[in-house]
Amino acid sequence: MTNNYIPVKIAGVGYSLPETVITNDDLTKLYDTSDEWIYSRTGIKERRLVSGDEDAIDLGLVAAENALKKSGIKPEELDLIIAASSAPPQLYPAIACHIQSRLGIETDIPAFDITAACSGLIYGMHVAKGFINSGIYKNILIVATDNNSRYLDWSDRGTSILFGDGAGAMVLTAAEDGVDDILYIDIKAKGSIGELIYKDNVGQNCPLVEPCSEHDGFIHMNGRGVYTFVAKILPKYVEDLLEHAGMKAEDIDYLIPHQANLRIIQAVQERLGYSDDKVVTNIKYYGNTSAASIPIALAESVEKGNVKLDTTAILCGFGAGMTWGGAIVRLREGIC
Ligand code: UT7
């Protein structure tokens, strides 16, 4: 750490969900499944899905506006926008460019997307932290948003039961009081097992050359493979985060994990020895909202009074790539 190190304040967190609810019972109209099968294996009862032309950009905009309002930072005071999405509605323009435009920002601030799937918020936080710590940028908006429902094969019951749509956003800024809200952060990837979850872009070769093989644009997942890998690495990884931060499980007030499967969350909870009231879960109502799941879980649990502020939390996520990451953060009063 140099003398010029500028600490980071988490200034605001917001979220947004589409209104349309699809229950497990609804899914029985699509294929042979049951509420009992889905709920017992995943903890999911229902999910919210985009409908009509609504998409991840619309959801992301509302989440961004909510986070900005909480932060007290105006859109025109932002220095950078980072969007994190597993599969953006358009590869370009980036979601972040759309958000810049729809927030009415005319100062040409940089805006770009990162692809780290469900680890997107943590990846975005790490990138933003670097910019703030070094003094390059002061006010950064991260928007984590996904409309996976549009890329699911709705005849594939192994995958389409799992995902929901939603958006979360976080505003990070230089901490003028010198108090760092990111106590520790880490991100990881293992590309060699990337085939566990993938989504191809659909395309074709020039008609003058040999055609390429055909790909669909659907999300493909080896659910059992993902489960086995994550259940093996994540509990130990979270324990290591604490050790690197020089903290113990009992020093932290809440675990706010990516909501992908209740059994994976419970494995981490067990390892940390946390009671249920220390662990945020809302997968029952929203399914896996990918990049958005951690900020939705954080902001919604504060709104509902299940998480108190002026506390600390472990945020952790994992997803396609495979990627994973975690952050130990201070949750200040007023951030959501
Ligand atoms: O952020 C993304 C991260 N992704 C994840 O976290 C996914 C983690 N994995 C999982 O949550 C679980 O693997 C799933 C819930 C997706 C699947 O559970 P599973 O116990 O691993 O099921 P499976 O894929 O091994 O399938 C077991 C059986 C199969 O039948 P047979 O071949 O044994 O006769 C499937 O056809 O269950 C069947 N099956 C279903 N049955 C009823 C698969 N999906 C369904 C379904 N309803 N929806």
How do the strands line up in the largest sheet? 1-7-6-4-5
Beta-strand content? 15-25%
Backbone CA Rg: 19 Å
Report how far the terminal alpha carbons are from each other: 30 Å
| Main sheet attributes: strand count, strand direction, barrel closure | 5 strands, mixed
The oligomeric state of the chains shown is single chain
- Cofactors and ligands: oxa(dethia)-CoA
Globally, the shape reads: globular
User: At the fourth CATH level, what is the homologous superfamily of the largest domain?
Assistant: Thiolase/Chalcone synthase
Number of helical stretches of at least 4 residues = 10
**Structural class label:** alpha/beta
Are there runs of 5+ residues with pLDDT below 50, and where? none
Helix content: 25-40%
Annotated CATH topology of the largest domain:
Peroxisomal Thiolase, Chain A, domain 1
Q: What is the element string, with H for helices and E for strands?
A: EEHHEHEHEHEHEEEEHEHHHEE
Instruction: Give the tally of structural domains.
Output: 2
Number of E-type strands: 13
Q: What is the average of the pLDDT values?
A: 97
